[in-house]
Amino acid sequence: QLVALGQDLVDFASALGLGRHALVGHDWGSRAAYIASSLNEARVAACVAVSTGYGTNSPGQTLSYRQTQNYWYHWLMATPRGEKLVREDRRAFTRHIWNEWFVAYKPDAVEFERTAVSFDNPDWADITLHSYRARWGHASGDPRYAALEARFDPAPKQRVATLTLHGAQDPVNSPQMSEGKESYFTGPYERRLIDGAGHFPQRECAPETATQIVQWLQRYDH
Description:
By secondary structure, this protein is α/β, with parallel strands linked by helices. It has one domain (2-57, 67-220): Alpha/Beta hydrolase fold, catalytic domain (Rossmann fold, 3-Layer(aba) Sandwich), CATH 3.40.50. It has eleven helices and four strands. Helix 2 (28-39) links the parallel strand 1 and strand 2 (44-50). Helix 1 packs across helix 2 (28-39) and helix 5 (80-88) packs across helix 6 (90-101).
């Protein structure tokens, strides 16, 4: 559950004894950062979200036909066939996804394997399947988070200074998914496209992405 990730992030920051701090996340991490910023706005000075627009977690949201097509893997994982692939052929499944999602270059086997070892964690398949199924109402959520789910659907206003970075050629979360979100933010907010990047700007256009993040944090992380 995405709200659970956000709450985990708040709890983790507390366990570390962090005071004012910034949050930077990509995809699932972006969604967690948005939620944690809202839950913990007194302590979160700045938020940077990469590849994910705000307010795109609701199962009732309107999707374009293009975005519906982009989310093919969401729908596949809601089926027994998709579950079998995630559980029994996870390397090939995720490698195919990576090949589709990188635009500026295609990662070699060494780069892929550095991440893919985490797919061998014993709970990876269960967590992955549940996250995508629960997101669209195909699986029940943890009742402990029912109140949080209600709080974030519809998405609340955000006061934390937030920068959204989005690959201009993202084939997963279409750049249109992060357009027109200004009304959600009562604090500083900017959305910037990274030309030439697909779904992984932090890998595909690392220097530019890092520069944008650092400049935002220098302005607001205090």
